[in-house]
Design a protein that fits this description.
The protein is of the alpha/beta class. The chain has a single domain, classed as NagB/RpiA/CoA transferase-like (Rossmann fold, 3-Layer(aba) Sandwich). It has nine helices and ten strands. The strands form two sheets. The protein has a six-stranded parallel beta sheet with strand order 1-10-7-4-2-3, sandwiched between helices. A four-stranded mixed beta sheet has the order 8-5-6-9, with helices on both faces. A hairpin with a 4-residue loop joins β5 and β6. It is globular. The two termini are about 30 Å apart.
Length: about 220
């Protein structure tokens, strides 16, 4: 019986994912559905050629699907500011290298059913690249990021703050309460909000919707 329930859940995720893909496609995104994280990785690697430069910002999703290892194995030059022990100067350079890479590979905090992609950032490096970096933009978005509307998307975006603050070892209020309190802490990581109504002008943007939960 449980397999029957699992099959229904899987089908529901697929139907929802395809609905969002349709909305994104109508807005000008090159959007596809991938049932699993393995399928998502395959779709990513189909888009990025051997030896390409790839910027990967702070994203749990991209690391969960195994993209970092797959890109390295293909000889890609991967730029990431998450490398341990970077000096402040090296981290700033990594942000710029991510921005200027041929491909910018990231996720999203939320996506609405009608195809709006919502992200929040602390330093601004991630959302600025989503809006205006020169390379090809690739989003990989888990089905858990789908929101009914923009208000729900912003709420869902704020739900990502506590685990991210905890992961970073920050002393923000949300790291203590487990939920966002819209704080004024110096360590606040929710500072720049980007709502993509459509791909920015002249920008090739891919979206891979995944029928599994990924990221925060």
């Amino acid at each position: 019986m449980s397999s029957q329930f699992d099959a229904a859940r899987s089908k529901a995720r697929e139907v929802l994912g395809m609905s969002v893909v349709g909305a994104l496609s109508a807005k000008g995104y090159d959007a596809v559905f991938a049932a699993t994280k393995e399928d998502a990785l395959s779709a990513v690697m189909h888009l990025i050629p051997d030896g390409a430069s790839v910027g990967v910002p702070g994203t749990v999703t991209i690391r969960e699907i195994g993209a970092m290892e797959a890109l390295a194995a293909r000889g890609c030059k991967v730029y990431q500011h998450w490398l341990p022990n970077l000096t402040p100067e090296a981290r700033k350079q990594a942000w710029l290298d991510e921005f200027n890479a041929e491909y910018f590979l990231t996720s999203a905090n939320a996506v609405t059913r009608d195809g709006r992609i919502v992200n929040v950032d602390g330093n601004g490096n991630r959302v600025s690249a989503m809006a205006w970096s020169p390379g090809t933009l690739i989003f990989v978005i888990g089905i858990n990021k789908v929101a009914a509307n923009l208000d729900e998307a912003v709420s869902r975006m704020r739900e990502a703050s506590p685990p991210n603050a905890i992961r970073l070892g920050l002393s923000t209020p949300c790291a203590q309460t487990g939920y966002c309190v819209n704080c004024s802490s110096p360590a606040r990581i929710c500072r720049a909000l980007l709502i993509l109504e459509a791909p920015t002008t002249g920008r090739k943007t891919h979206v891979i919707m995944v029928g599994e939960e990924l990221g925060y």
